[in-house]
DUF7053 domain-containing protein (Asterophora parasitica), 502 residues
Amino acid sequence: MVFTSTKTISFKKTIHALPDAVLALLHDPKVLFAANPLIAGVIQDPSKPHTYTITDTLVVLGYFTTTTKYTAQLDLHKDGVDTAVVASLGTRLRGQYRIRAGENGTTVLEEDTAVEGFSLMMPYIIKTMAPAHEQILESVAAKAENRDSRHMKQLSRSEMSARIFLLAAVISACLVPCIYPYTTSLSLFAVIVSLLSLLGVRTKMGDPYSLFHLSLNKLGEDVPPKTEWLNMGYWQPCSLKLVQVTIKFREQKYNSLTSCCGLEALATKLIQAAQCKTGDSILDVGYGTGESVILLLSEPSIPRPSLIIGVTSLSSHHIRAEKRVERILAHQESKVDPPTRVLLHCADAVHQPGQASPSHPLGPSSTVKYNGILALDCAYHFNTRWTFLEQSLEKLASGGRIALADICFDPDILKRSRTAWAASKLFQLMPKANMVSPKDYVARMMEMGYVDVQLEDISQDVFPGFVRFLKAREIGWKVFGLTLEWYAGLGAKFIIVSGARV
Ligand SMILES: C[S@@+](CC[C@H](N)C(=O)[O-])C[C@H]1O[C@@H](n2cnc3c(N)ncnc32)[C@H](O)[C@@H]1O
């Protein structure tokens, strides 16, 4: 018909579970319906076994909600399930979910859904259903991998509260010093309010990160970000020049030394500390939305690994990273020989027996040995960093090296002042057990059995440059910059630490 059009949407997900386990979930209508964030109610048709009347809640004009009813039929197959939806205004969906065995005991789940509908409604239908269907795959994966999945709805609510808390922080931080300009303790109070607000965000979200870092990577008012770094950077002028040159090579333009190339410089420095070589197997821990994986895959001056396994805790980061990396690999296909294999996990970096997925890269059932393990600006969060380091040592190949861009503390501050403890607790930045001096950090690694342990204090090339970089950005980042400046002043040290397995 002239007024209808058809569009097909496709999604693919690698699941760290065996095909039988994934198939069992696909064949369970309760799981499938619960996985769709739009579905508000399901009634099974008593006369037709696999037919259901479903109620969806839809958001209209970005704010209002409405409900719509439609029928759905499931058709179970030996390698998946077909879905057929008949909805109002002539909307029809025909979906195919199929599984196949992937590498290393994984399962690849693919969805192809053909959508037919009223042409004028098509952009709305696709915009609404595409993220929901992507979430279905993520939820099935999370269930198969025995981990939490962050639901789209919960995520957007968390992002909303993050904005509200940040706004409260900004207003308090700006207003208090204006009303009482001569009272330094009140300025400090303003900073504390900011910290408390950020703590509020953290408690709501369970992880201080979201996708806010995209704006950190902006190259200018009208230039969208091309990278997605989420670290404090390395702002030594000579490294920045080097990174600027390599970034230009990757066809990106940076205007000044306060551009975000410092964020990439920290990643480059960490990779150098891990002494990576061509053909290595690399474990990238806390990979955020995948920029470090992309750097390993595409930066000509970095030795290209043969295998990259990643593990990060936030599901929204994991989903985004998988897509970004898939695009890079598809683009490189046939140009790079042999291609690098990439497997990205969504899990806590520390393997918790009985909780994390059986394919956890640091778990006992994983047989991969790594030549290099990278933890870029994340290990201070781990519960605890010491368990992570012990598990990592087990998984390093002989001669393999771990490198961490991490935070520790001035020993005098740890002895004398409780403010650093209080601030770290307030931020929920790190468990108390992770708060050590550089000397104790090295000693603990050596006790575990690491050799050739090297620690470099790069605080002066991290905090001042990052604070300058933040202060040159929007108000929310300025407040964060002030807070970080205060925290660094308490005796925090930014270090690059590395050690090898004999
Ligand atoms: C500061 S960001 C660094 C991201 C990335 N390495 C980069 O430089 O762009 C810290 C990352 O570690 C992740 N993370 C925090 N705690 C974690 C944990 N316990 N296990 C795994 N990842 C964790 C966060 O979600 C976030 O992606």
Notes: Residues 150-164, 174-186, 199-206, 251-258 have pLDDT under 50 and may be disordered. The CA atoms of residues 29 and 74 lie 8 Å apart. The radius of gyration is 25 Å.
